[in-house]
Amino acid sequence: MKKSNMFKIEEMNLYKTTDRFLNNYKHLKKSLKRAPTLEEISDIDQLHYNGIEAVNEAILKTKIKENNIVLDIGSGIGGPARYLANKTNSIIYAVELQKSLNDIASELTNNYKLEKNIFHINADILKYNFNKIKFNNIVSWLALYHIPKRDELLKILYNLLENKGYIYVEDFYLKKNITNNEKKLLAKNFHANHLVPLKTYKEELKNNKFYLLDCLDMSADWTKFTQDRLLNFKKNYVKHIQINNKNTADNILKFYSLAHDLLSKNIVGGIRYIIKKNI
Length: 279
Ligand SMILES: C[S@@+](CC[C@H](N)C(=O)[O-])C[C@H]1O[C@@H](n2cnc3c(N)ncnc32)[C@H](O)[C@@H]1O
Fold this sequence. Notes:
The protein is 46% helix and 20% strand. It is an alpha/beta fold. A seven-stranded mixed sheet has the order 3-2-1-4-5-7-6, sandwiched between helices. Residues 9, 46-48, 73-76, 79-80, 95-98, 101, 124-126, 141-143, 146-147 line the site of S-adenosylmethionine.
């Protein structure tokens, strides 16, 4: 599944009713009767698995520290970028394709007074011109499999990364052979534009002059995470309808079911890895 598909990313249920993010944030703020901490909003603003634990892992493994310049690819509503900036006082360029998500990201970043640390950029990572900026580190959670043209992407990242820098990624790979019809469904419902077997995934990194330092198969962990998330969402379904509305709650329910199905049926697997330039 290497070619770009014809489906819009907004067709994916996770991205359909984006006003829920600020609704959920405001509801939490109201019930706490104060501004929630970044840890407290992590269930709302971290759109990957294992929340801030996964961001702490990136900080540790890629040694992000004060004043480092970090690129976050597919930054969503900015949860990882805010947590990173707040914890390390680094400078983050957070690149997000969808304007609606990027606008919410900017609003929340302003609320937490982190706008001096984070530049929210509404752009396609394959097209954005960073001029001469070089990054100490690059991070990305659950975004790369959305992006077509893997070789092109890796070439861009190679040029953006400082020679001694690290890239930390969490992403999906294809775990079993699927039919064309299943591929089409994955392209539509999961916006999968680059989903390849793990062996191919690693070869692509190597062929683009990256050295794999560490690679962890997250499939079992993410299967459990998505199962718990789904059960929890079902338990609180009525509350979600009250905070948002039925349409929004149903979109999320469908997406959480799909993510769990794909992982538990071994159609997709998850990986967490760190790479360096091979120079
Ligand atoms: C599953 S979300 C994860 C968001 C964020 N990384 C997080 O963990 O909270 C993946 C994000 O990647 C973004 N994305 C997809 N393709 C992109 C591209 N070509 N350039 C920039 N962002 C992209 C999507 O719009 C989406 O917001």
